[in-house]
Amino acid sequence: MTTFAFVIGLAYLVAATLFVLGLHQMRAPSTARRGNLTSVLGMAIAIAATLVVALVTSGGSVWGWLALVLGAALGAVYGVVRARTVKMTDIPQLVSVFNAVGGGAAAAVAFVDFVLYRSATPLSLTSSIPIVLDVLIGSVTFSGSLIAAGKLQGVIPGRPITFPGSRVVNLAVVLVAVGAAVLTVIFGHSILLLIIVLIAALVFGILMVLPIGGADAPVIVSLLNAFTGLAVAMAGFAIDNQALIIAGALVGAAGTILTLQMAKAMNRSVANVILGGFGTGDAPVTSALAQDLTGVRQLTADDIAVQLAYAQRVLIVPGFGLASAQAQHEVAELAKLLLDHHVDVKYAIHPVAGRMPGHMNVLLAEANVPYDQMLQLDEANAAFDNCDVALVVGANDVCNPMARQKGNPVSGMPILDVDHAKSIVVVKRSMSPGYAGIANPLFTDPRTGMFFADAKQGLAAILAATKDYVTA
Predict the structure, then answer these.
(1) What is the C-alpha separation between 142 and 105, in angstroms, rounded?
(2) What is the SS3 assignment for 1?
(3) What φ, ψ does residue 391 adopt, rounded to 5°?
(4) What is the DSSP string of 132-183?
(5) Looking at residue 275, what is its pLDDT?
(6) What is d(CA 181, CA 451) in angstroms, rounded to the nearest whole number?
(7) Could you count the other beta carbons within 10 Å of the beta carbon of residue 71?
């Protein structure tokens, strides 16, 4: 081994070690920021090492280097600008776009490597299998992630989109993609077959995500993230780059674990999600007065303020309605006001409270909510029995008691036991159902009071009223 190869290998080893350390630090909210920075440092070292290898060994043309430098510069600028300007509610869309970029780039690396360097002679299995898998998985990730981003952004309807015979078409596309992939491995030098794999995989990515409803968004985002990792790892095998192999394997493993956890949190198998999700997308805003409010007890901001001011323990249950209204600062200010008034305040966070894993935790952290105030599902449910007031803000399915009954879309789904609290306040725009499309009996519970308002405006009104009581 030459000195140059040793130094590059050592740089990749250091980068991989930093990836592992960064991932470990992301296990806890208190160290997650440091984990991100650690991983960024590892990626910077890996990129620098790869550029050095390209400079020393490739002897590329001026145009090739110009394209590389411009591409790196544009990508870096776009990444920094988007990451710094993105709204917290739009993070899932941004993650989906990044998944698409990662999967598409990995597929492009393998495809170009095959066309330029390997298509003239038959390939060995150790070369052809990673290339074919990279193109297959990366292409599915690219198109599927773009459709997911469109659904999350509202450009594409969030409801499941199907057509007659859609599953037959899906099966046919899968058979074409897998068949062409197998033939590519067998013959080893057919560009036409690899193009068929590419096109069929792109089509399948679209057809796979279109039938998935808004309720399944957290699962599909995690699944596509795992696909991105697998594609990157396959690209590493295709071009013999250890950094890509390790980084891709880490992302793939982490994304797979997260996908399984999210599916468990929704009591749905990953297979059921892929075969056709449920959920109607964001429910339209309707007037509360135009609905049947029989059995519904309506509250004013003053009514809620009295309950909160004289409570000893308050649990806040944030949902996507809070994220959509960008009301994290209002809820944090209300919680601080109550804490200063010696009220014990905690947040009950359901694993799928936002549109992707950890979305709600990030949203609250942006508003400087201390990590130790955020209770996860099991810890939160243990606290509801001693809770004086449960303040539900924009949450629906994650606290629907119908999950304890059989025969409905949320049956068996682990929920927050909000109905165990002594008093329940729900801030919601209307009585419209959540993603699952079913009514929530919590809203007509005798202990529940409804405050119909946008989360941001409603919390502002409650905050103003509560200040009057605690400062009186």
Answers:
(1) 9
(2) coil
(3) -100, 105
(4) HHHHHHHHHHHHHHHHHHHHHHTSS-SS----TTHHHHHHHHHHHHHHHHHH
(5) 64
(6) 56
(7) 11
Q: Are 366 and 400 a contacting pair, CB within 8 Å?
A: no
The beta strand positions in 249-332, using DSSP E, are 313-318
Structure tokens at 300: 């004013």
Other CB atoms within 10 A of residue 466 CB = 25
For residue 397, indicate whether it is catalytic: yes
pLDDT for the residue 388: 96
Reduce the DSSP state of residue 375 to 3 states and report it: strand
CB atoms near residue 223 (< 10 Å):
28
Cβ–Cβ under 8 Å, residues 447 and 471:
no
Return the residue matching tokens 């075969």: 275
Give me the pLDDT at residue 290, please: 43
Burial class, 401, CB count within 10 angstroms (exposed 0-12 / middle 13-18 / buried 19+): middle
HSE, side-chain direction, 13 A CA sphere, residue 141: 33
What does the alpha-carbon distance between residue 114 and residue 110 come to, in Å, rounded to a whole number? 6
Residue of 251, 237, 210 lying closest to 103 (CA atoms) = 251
Confidence at residue 387, expressed as pLDDT on a 0 to 100 scale? 96
pLDDT of residue 56: 78
- Positions in the chain short of pLDDT 50: 278, 280-290
The b/e string for 360-386 (b: 16+ C-beta within 10 A; e otherwise) is bbbbbbebebeeebbbebeebbebbee
Residue 283 pLDDT: 47
Cβ–Cβ < 8 Å for 372, 406: no
pTM of the model: 0.78
Q: Where are the alpha helices (DSSP H) in 58-90?
A: 62-85
Out of 113, 134, 216, 397, pick the active-site residue.
Answer: 397
| Torsion 105-106-107-111 (CA) sign | positive
Is residue 412 within 8 Å of residue 267, measured between CB atoms?
Answer: yes
